[in-house]
Predict the structure.
Amino acid sequence: MITPTISREVAHDRWLAADRAAIWERAEVVDVERRATITRLRLRLGTIPDLRAGQYYLVRVAVDTPPGVVEQAYSLCSSPYPPSTDVEIAVREVVGGRVSPLLAHEVQVGDQLHVRGPYGSLTWTDLDDGPLGLIGAGTGVAPLVSLVRYAAARQLVVPMTLLSSSRNPTTALLVDELEELAVRASWFTFARTYTRDPQDRSSQYHRRVDAAMLAEVFVTHDIARRPSTYFVAGPHDMVIATRTALSSLGVADELIYSEDHV
């Protein structure tokens, strides 16, 4: 009797490269949700990780071209509470990217990926200060969603306001969930801006984040909801511009946190 072989094209370990130093952890893809340019992957780890809301993992995949393996950092959009072996990442496909096209189109449920982490200092727990001002662009919204989901899971009432910037509705992350939470949770406020879709009236703004927008979303809140701490996540230029705009509104630099300023 001849035992059939599984081709590399369908084998669940097709994305795994050699790991002689044993520094990578295997994670099984247990759910894939693909929507336009945003893909969410739920990964199942071997053990419950020790992580905080807002952290990220490195994801490594084997490829057929030199150097034979590529890796990329992806922020968690899942909550670390309640503790679970499952984590969720958000992937925006970057044309010409090394990893994102594979995760966005080819990785399937049951596939094994190498991951390493968690990493990152842009984190928050119920022991930290609030209220919070959260400002994210693109998949930079993911770690901020992790914070919001954590607060909701812990049934906290620390005031949080999230301003999400994306090109249009197809590139926005978890809008329906965030809108629903804003309706039922008095501690959470959600605002969004679409930079390339001026016709979509579901968004309050239709431009890049600027000082005037930040003033309307955050500074004009009643004093009890006005952020004492800001978290900014997204492309480097957006983070720098947002920090500058917040400074122009009188927000002290030490109250503004981003992955490169913690």
